[in-house]
Amino acid sequence: MTINQIYEIYKAHPVVTTDNRQCEQGAMFFALKGASFDGNQFAASALEAGCAYAVVDEKEYAPEGDARYILVDDVLSTLQQLAQYHRQQLTIPVLQITGTNGKTTTKELVSAVLSRKYSTLFTQGNLNNHIGVPRTLLRIRPEHEIAVIETGANHPGEIDFLCGMVQADYGLITNVGRAHLEGFGSFEGVKKTKGELYDDLAKRGKMVFLNAFDDDLMAMVEKAFGKIDAISLASHECENVMPYVEGRVEDCSSFLRIQWRKEVDMPWHTVQTHLVGAYNIANIRAAITVGLYFGVDEADINQAIADYQPTNSRSEFRETAHNKLIVDAYNANPSSMNAALTNFAMMNVPQKMVILGDMRELGANSEQEHRSIIERLVKDGVELAWLVGEEFCKVVKVNPQPSAESTDGVQIRTFAHVDEVKAELQAHLISGRTILIKGSNGTKLFQLPELL
Fold first, then answer.
1. Average pLDDT of the chain?
2. Which listed residue, 30, 62, 176, 186, has the most CB atoms within 10 A of its CB?
């Protein structure tokens, strides 16, 4: 069966699932394979649960004469081709977002702003890889007026591959930093891969929303599009760059309050957000800029940003009965960790404490990057630091059992994994502190707030 033929079936059954436990009536089930599962084995149960069709790639799971089974060479490739074909039929504007840090928050802020004026389809959660992106594209319906697609990568070439599916009209890179170095090989590898979005847009004559305050992004966009004159940036003459939006922090002690204005001689807008961290200013600026470009009213932009509440342990501020928490435990790399620590250092509050988890996928750079974080804690004068994970334990050079040592006045404790931290918190209540919780998702520090 050709992609065109499968697409005709999809148009009649436009709900796609890859989980036989989540089957809407009339959906199409795609039997994907993983390291420890074969979706083909669940095709029959997906049909029993209400799916209209099951796309499989093993003949033994496609009974002859049963038209509900669609046999293909490779299910994942078919899903991706179907999403690309669907994208080619669309006429709505599509914005693609990538970057090392902040891409999910930026995607959600941008989508919140655009939703004030348009029916907006956007990536749910962080479904931003070779499986999540096609699933997102296939959620675009005739009623949608604009789409915001998040794309992620941890190896060279992945953004380029996703660009082929998304075929964006607009692109936005939040930033580039030292993350996934094990996969990218170096920071230059990070920039090259993220820059594949600029390369794709330049090749197809499309537009970039550019953070002109970021030197790395400026160099990357100039490489892709050609020399961009700084005067053009200031006077908005270059169609390939983001209009200039100023922003400044008014308060770093709890939730972030920002001020912005479109032009230098215009009055300031003041917006109280539910975000923490000065590093979120760039994410908010991106949302404002995209909103202005697409004609969203400035009052609606402000309301969308004020109403947005982060979830999934991303820049969340929580006040419990015992402590004030900054929970940023969904992901961590050297760039985002240093940004979080910079913001924490700016906060004028007593009894500071950090609980930091390992930064994953740093390869040969891991020991030095974790050592740099410890040196940073000493420099910032954090009173109490709990470091969680094997990498931090190696650097501090202690056995994997909880232990304590003083480093220039900073009390440091190490824990091999989050269960040890939970046991300690259950045995000894911590109260009266302002605590930053930051680590890679795999360290599971998101389990800690309920104990603090």
1. 87
2. 30
Assign 365 a pLDDT band (cuts: 50, 70, 90).
Answer: confident
Report how far residue 161's alpha carbon sits from residue 82's, in angstroms, rounded to the nearest whole number: 15
Angle of helix 158-166 relative to helix 187-194, nearest 10 degrees, comes to 10
Strand partners for 386:
355, 413
Q: Is the pTM of this model over 0.70?
A: yes
Give the C-alpha separation, 46 to 164, whole Å: 30
Q: What gap in Å lies between CA 225 and CA 175, rounded to an integer?
A: 18
Its sign, for the CA torsion 156, 157, 159, 162, is: negative
Interstrand relation of 434-438 and 352-357 (parallel, antiparallel or unpaired): parallel
pLDDT at 401 over 90: no
Give CA–CA dist 349/208, Å, rounded.
Answer: 40
Q: What is the pLDDT of residues 291-346, one digit of tens each?
A: 999 999 999 999 999 999 887 767 788 889 999 999 988 888 888 899 889 888 88
Instruction: Read off the pLDDT of residues 55-88 as tens digits, 9 standing for 90 and up.
Output: 999 999 999 999 999 999 999 999 999 999 999 9
Lowest-confidence range among 195-209, 236-250, 255-269?
236-250
Mean pLDDT calculated for residue range 196-210: 91
Q: How far is CA 53 from CA 18, 30, 58, in A?
A: 12, 9, 15
For 159, counting Cβ atoms within 10 Å of its Cβ (0-12 exposed, 13-18 middle, 19+ buried), the class is buried
Contact present, 7 and 82 (Cβ < 8 Å): yes
Give pLDDT, residue 166. 97
pLDDT value at residue 252: 54
Q: How confident is the model at residue 388 (pLDDT cuts 50, 70, 90)?
A: very high
